From TrEMBL:
This is Uncharacterized protein. GO terms for molecular function: O-methyltransferase activity; protein dimerization activity. The lineage of its organism: Eukaryota, Viridiplantae, Streptophyta, Embryophyta, Tracheophyta. Keywords: Methyltransferase, S-adenosyl-L-methionine, Transferase. It comes from Eleusine coracana subsp. coracana. PROSITE patterns: SAM_OMT_II. Residues 20-110 form the O-methyltransferase dimerisation domain. Signal peptide: none annotated. It holds the Pfam family Dimerisation. PANTHER family: O-METHYLTRANSFERASE. The gene is ga24425.
């Protein structure tokens, strides 16, 4: 084989390994999706934060024919640090114990809707056509629109289930990251009196700030159909508008995740 004449066999084997690692990288995210779908993090948590395979099986619903495959799934999830594994000493018989890691602690508490959103087929499938996207000139550069015929925010307007998926996912991430920001940088919020979250969605971030710092007048600027569904009874003011036309004045302008899927027309 010409290839083998010109390059060392070991170099090519290393190259094949790199290719396989990248080719099968999707198995990591699909294993994570399975863990979320099956509630494995919750099962371990309910067992005190550590569980053997039979203990996980007592809490997770699997078809009996698939039980032998759970160990393989857990192997992927431990090599990717979603869970950790502690083997029994070689001198003793017994089952390995799976434990929560910082990553899976987040799956128990807050990040499930975010992972569920990002691993949804509607969000993942457009990337199968990334090569085509590079070859075409499109009036709208949004890859989601190339695949589904409309931008993310147009689809949220038309499809209630998709809207819930996106809003819950974004809100869970906002809630988590704002809790962290408030804990680490409280003085930043103490020194301001107003804040506007541009493209703030259902207002999870603004509400978290408003509750922690009642002296900060918090507002959300978003598109009409998002503001129409804004939760009532909060101190946050929801404003309908297009960020490309104007942004109401405030001490702080928050732009979180706003580079993704922004639409110019309201
Ligand atoms: C990726 S989401 C971010 C939501 C929120 N900031 C968060 O981090 O959870 C983008 C938001 O921008 C809004 N949006 C899109 N185009 C907009 C525009 N032209 N003017 C104002 N808001 C817009 C969408 O409706 C959506 O709520």
């Amino acid at each position: 084989m010409q290839l083998l004449d010109n390059t060392t066999t070991q170099t090519l084997l290393d190259g094949q390994l790199d290719l396989w690692h990248t080719t099968f990288a999707f198995m990591k995210s699909m294993a994570l999706k399975s863990a979320v779908d099956l509630g494995i993090a919750d099962a371990i948590q309910h067992n005190g934060g550590a569980a053997t395979l039979p203990e996980i099986l007592s809490k997770v619903k699997l078809h009996p024919s698939k039980i032998p495959n759970l160990r393989r799934l857990m192997r992927v999830l431990t090599t990717t640090n979603v869970f950790s594994i502690q083997h029994p000493p070689t001198t003793e018989e017994g089952e390995p114990v799976y434990k929560l890691t910082p990553a899976s602690q987040l799956l128990v508490s807050s990040q499930i809707p975010f992972a569920t959103m990002l691993l949804n087929p509607m969000i993942v499938s457009p990337f199968f056509e990334l090569g085509t996207w590079f070859q075409r000139e499109l009036p709208d550069p949004c890859i989601f629109k190339q695949a589904h015929g409309m931008a993310v925010w147009e689809l949220t307007r038309k499809d209630a289930a998709f809207d819930t998926l996106i809003n819950k996912g974004l809100a869970s991430d906002s809630q988590f990251i704002l809790d962290v920001a408030i804990k680490l940088n409280a003085e930043v919020f103490q020194s301001i009196s107003s804040l506007i979250d541009v493209g703030g969605g259902s207002g999870a971030a603004a509400q978290t700030i408003s509750k922690a710092f009642p002296h900060v007048k918090c507002s959300v600027l978003d598109l009409e159909h998002i503001v129409a569904k804004a939760p009532a009874g909060t101190d946050v003011q929801y404003i309908t508008g297009d960020m490309f036309e104007s942004i109401p004045p405030a001490n702080v302008v928050l732009l979180k995740f706003c580079m993704t899927g922004i639409t110019r027309t309201v």
